[in-house]
Amino acid sequence: MKAVRIPEANEIEIIDLPEPEITQANEVKVKIRRVGICGSDMHIYHGTNPLATYPRIVGHEVAGEVVSIGENVKNVTPGDRVVIEPITYCGDCYACNRGRPNVCNEVSVFGVHEDGGMRESVVLPEEQVHKVNAEINWDEAVMAEPYTIGAQATWRGNVEEGQTVFIQGAGPIGITVLKMAKLRGATVIISDITNERLAFAKENGADYTINPSEVDTVTTINEITNDEGANVVIDAVGSTQTFELGIEVASAAGNVVLLGFNATPSAIAQMLITKKELTITGSRLQTNQFGKVVELINEKKLTHNGLITHKFPLSEVKEAFKFVEENPSIVRKAVITFD
Ligand SMILES: NC(=O)c1ccc[n+]([C@@H]2O[C@H](COP(=O)([O-])OP(=O)(O)OC[C@H]3O[C@@H](n4cnc5c(N)ncnc54)[C@H](O)[C@@H]3O)[C@@H](O)[C@H]2O)c1
Ligand SMILES: [Zn+2]
Ligand SMILES: [Zn+2]
Questions:
Q1: 39 CA from centroid of ligand 1 (Å)
Q2: CA-CA distance, 330 to 308, in Å (whole number)?
Q3: Are 116 and 153 in the same domain?
Q4: From residue 48, how far is each of 57, 59, 261 by CA, in Å?
């Protein structure tokens, strides 16, 4: 079978590997149909993801079809459409025992710490595959993993009906946060420095948009919220400035959720945090979000609606990475097809 491998930073190759076979009774063999290209795949490609090791088969946004199952597998049968949950963990540490295995010390992400889904077939334990309805097309199914990131962020921020949520960044992650916040019944303000991305956010349910390079964000949020501030701020940019701004525009008793992996410190005074009694949380990957997201996809309440802008066959994966890299203004999400 063919697989896409990053042998070392800035190189990409299509290699031939032996077909994987089921060896354990709890395993499922999946024929891959779609794999999304994510910002983190680009970081692995460029050698700027500190968690990745090489050589690496990338791909953690994966949808495919079950082709065979081990004898103890109960929840899927051959022919089922599935999406892959890309994390494994120890099950034994403090975080795992707290129901937060996504931040297990030994967490291993499919396509980052271990070989992922950008290959024609993969064998995984049953727990890592989630069945989607047969009528859900592959382009909808492949978005499940990105939606779980938005689901996690809105869960970490306790987003509730009636709240005003301010999302910074209308990239693919900001859009998944937007979709989940709207499904939770919030009023959503979203910012981006690109008007095209803001227009797309508006089409996907944003109530208000802000371009911080054109208007003052603090003033605009105060106007929208009658000086209350945003009840939940979710940072899907991850710059030092967006963290600082988030603390500033959060309402009293508000939540600030961070998604970025920026290692540069922000300048944040205690005063605002204490005075407003803010809750600041990180949100990493997801925990227990696949079930809910798959249900929403099955109910067609979560649809990509133009989020997938480009598709490339496996044979053109090099061109795909190059295109994504060179065209950030027109690519929202590109996917590799295995038809
Ligand atoms: N925690 C997690 O589990 C997780 C998972 C995936 C991605 N991420 C992180 O989420 C962030 C967003 O990911 P993405 O793939 O959508 O990235 P992206 O680069 O496609 O999107 C970021 C968007 O932010 C906009 N932006 C830049 N500066 C801004 C500013 N000052 N104010 C408002 N908008 C601004 C950009 O124009 C762009 O549209 C990244 O930091 C990424 O590392 C986190
Ligand atoms: Zn991703
Ligand atoms: Zn653990």
A1: 9
A2: 11
A3: no
A4: 16, 16, 11
Do both 35 and 109 map to the same domain?
A: yes
Q: What is the DSSP secondary structure assignment for residue 103, as one 8-state letter? A: G
237 CA distance to ligand 1 centroid (A)?
3
Q: Which one-letter DSSP state was computed for residue 243?
A: H
Answer whether residue 296 is part of any domain: no
Report residue 258 as tokens. Answer: 């961070």
| 110 lies in the same domain as 228 | no
Q: What is the pTM of this model?
A: 0.97
What range defines the domain where residue 196 resides? 148-282
Pairing of strands 279-282, 250-258: parallel
pLDDT digits (tens, 9 = 90+) for 107-161: 999 999 999 999 999 999 999 999 999 999 999 999 999 999 999 999 999 999 9
Written as one letter, the residue type at 242 is T
Residues 79 and 196 in one domain: no
How close is the Cα of 200 to the center of ligand 1, in Å? 15
Kindly provide the residue ranges of all beta strands, DSSP E only, lying in the chain, ordered along the sequence.
Answer: 2-6, 13-16, 27-37, 56-57, 61-69, 81-84, 87-88, 108-109, 121-125, 129-132, 164-168, 187-191, 208-210, 230-235, 250-258, 279-282, 308-313, 333-337
Of 58, 194, 259, the one to substitute when testing ligand 1's pocket (max ligand atoms within 8 A of C-beta) is 259
Q: How far apart are CA 184 and CA 224, in angstroms?
A: 20
Give me ligand 3 centre to Cα 87, in Å.
11
9, 138: one domain: yes
The CATH number assigned to the domain holding 24 equals 3.90.180.10
- CA-to-CA separations, 287 to 40, 75, 165, in angstroms, rounded: 19, 20, 21
Q: Encode 180-238 in three state secondary structure.
A: HHHHCCCEEEEECCCHHHHHHHHHCCCCEEECCCCCCHHHHHHHHCCCCCEEEEEECCC
pLDDT > 70 fraction of the chain, expressed in percent and rounded: 100
Closest atom of ligand 1 to 328 CA is 20
Q: How many domains does the chain have?
A: 2
Residues 135 and 164 in one domain: no
